[in-house]
Design a protein that fits this description.
about 260 residues, alpha/beta, Udp N-acetylglucosamine O-acyltransferase, Domain 2, 2 domains, 11-stranded mixed sheet, 4 helices
Amino acid sequence: MKIHPTAIVDKKAKLADNVEVGPYAIIGPDVEIASSSTIGGHVVIEGRTSIGENCRVFTGAVLGSPPQDLKYKGAKSFLKIGNNNTIREYTTMNPGTDEGGVTYIGDENLFMAYSHVAHDCKIGNSCIIANAGTLAGHVTLEDRVVIGGLTAIHQFVKVGRLAMIGGCSKVVQDVPPFSTCDGHPTRVYGLNLIGLRRSEISKESQAALNKSFKVLFYSGLALKNAAEKVKEEFGDSSEVRYLLDFIKDSKRGICRGKSGE
């Protein structure tokens, strides 16, 4: 274990032997940090926060401080961070609000400088949140989501797998998987073709998704009717079925294309 002499690490904190802690960092008594993780200078980690293996936390990040939720009354809640995450300068992450509540961060995510993850969020794997991206409480990001810089996402919004949201966007409804979105409020502009190719989604499924998007988001049909049509015509594709299930389960409504308003 390599701890800078100016760092303050509570004796009750549980750090693996090869964790590194930089100058003036502060680590509280209920913190757990797994092997090969590096904590930068002036980082503050408090509350019931656990950090997985091989994570890098950069200067000034604050992890595990009480949620910015007026309902919070000191409940025993948690921030759980998985493996291989990169948390850049001055990022903030809060634990859950209610007793036993959890803010969960998966594996291999990149949180760029000044990004914020509020209470009770659920982040999947291999997501990217660019500089000053802001997630309100109870936001869910599925795997391989990309959030542009200065984008704000409303509480309880769900962003589907492989979605990409442009910078400076205002997200108030659920974002469909595989989509590229942008705007105030956010609207669907098309498929995330680069993400689909990198994920090795078959050309057949890409074609089915492309046709499905045209029906769902640009045909002018009511979403329910559009979904029924897509199911009949393209329901053999597992990606299309996943897209339809996402739409069916949406609680806040789905972002649509401009012609589908």
